[in-house]
Amino acid sequence: MAPVPPGIRFLASFNRDQWYKAFTFALTFLLYTSFHLSRKPISIVKSELHKNCSHVMEVPTESSQQPRLHPELDCSWKPFDRNNYKQLLGAMDYSFLCAYAIGMYLSGIIGERLPIRLYLTVGMLTSGLFTCLFGLGYIYDIHSLGFYIFVQVANGLVQTTGWPSVVTCIGNWFGKGRRGLIMGLWNSHTSVGNILGSLIAGYYVSSNWGLSFIVPGVIIAVMGVICFFFLIEHPNDLKTASAQSSAQSNQKPHKSWNGVNGHKDLYLQCKPGAKAQSWDTELLLGQESIGVYVPVQQVVVVKSEAEPSAISFMGALRIPGVVEFSLCLLFAKLVSYTFLFWLPLYITKAAHLDAKKAGDLSTLFDVGGIVGGILAGVISDKMGKRATTCAVMLLLAAPTLYGFSMISQFGLGPTIGMLLVCGGLVNGPYALITTAVSADLGTHKSLKGNARALSTVTAIIDGTGSVGAAVGPLLAGLLSAQGWDQVFYMLMTADFFALLLLLRLVMKELRSHRSRPGVAVE
Fold first, then answer.
1. Fewer beta carbons under 10 A from the terminal one: N or C of the chain?
2. Which reaction does it catalyse (predicted)?
3. What is the dihedral of CA 103, 176, 443, 274, to 10 degrees?
4. Can you give the pLDDT at residue 308?
5. How much is the pTM?
């Protein structure tokens, strides 16, 4: 007999549960990749909405020897052709992120009370609609600032369905063992989505920037349909489906039906805690095919233990560590999202590149973010100290940000290196807090096994961080008018406050005599 190939042996070593874990990991990864893919185009298109058109000159005529701008060749998109275009672009960012921050607090609470699969599907379909709607502004020549603000606000609200849903789902499937590594790998969907969004938007930005939004909008809508058909929210859903399948297979279509098995089947098809009542009649066929109807006895299934109720907003805030990490994320996400929305434009102005090249170069920041998120997870697993890992990376990020502010003085090589390092140090703490830390706190021992708190805790932490995400790009739009140096001073100040808010948890972890994975807070 021929030897079995190593690849086949490796695949055969996985049992059914491991296959479903891998499938859920991959599916939720792709689902949230599409969320970030649809958010990225606005940062690429900014440099197209307002372009320096001074080089578009009309050839001097006989009547006038002075060249002037050709009115039909004005390449800025109204209303962003004004002198205050940075404030207008910042207002668009702020409208999206402010709506996202407000909606996030409600999203986790709503998500705990609705089926995750349906909740996420509706959010992705509507997000695809509003993303496409922004792009249609180009096709139908819409120049109303109110239109673009409305689309951004609506899209910000519906996109809040994503994060609490996917984190809850992945937290249901994966326990605390190596959670930092698993979440670090999984959270790279953020950077992967940003990279793909940059590449797609950059491909169309110069020729038809409307497609820079329409194509990502179609992608997230298609992923929403895939979510509806294939997402498995919890391992228990598989057991329920297996029990139902077993129950149906036991119902034999013969002339006689065993009443005891019938009762057993009815019990298996009942959901935990539900009361099953059946006053139907059972058809018993004898040898002579004479029907005799016999009433079936009532079957009542009563759960032995009360179903854990969804945690309240204040109850989630009382979990040790939630407030500190939430406020830390506010400043960490402020820095991260300022780069997300303004980095391509900054590179365009500082390095004197066109929109496509600047967008391609900005993807290196996201590549560094992938590496930083994975390293943060691995180190925090090894040390058992989530807060300390975040604090060290925040401490190293400050001088890196200062160096990045002098990008115009660098050559291409140093700029690439600075983008990679800065991306890792900025996104590492942000990735760790929004994934492994959120999952740790959502399953904290003070909850006594109530896993339904995970969605609310995740929403509180990410919602608070989203406040910073809304403020950062807005401040960048205002401060950049005075020079980009002011923007980087703001980012370094935010980084310092993020570090300061973690000091109590860091000291608590350092005083701990034992190393264990998870959040070292009692």
1. N
2. D-glucose 6-phosphate(in) + phosphate(out) = D-glucose 6-phosphate(out) + phosphate(in)
3. 100
4. 55
5. 0.72
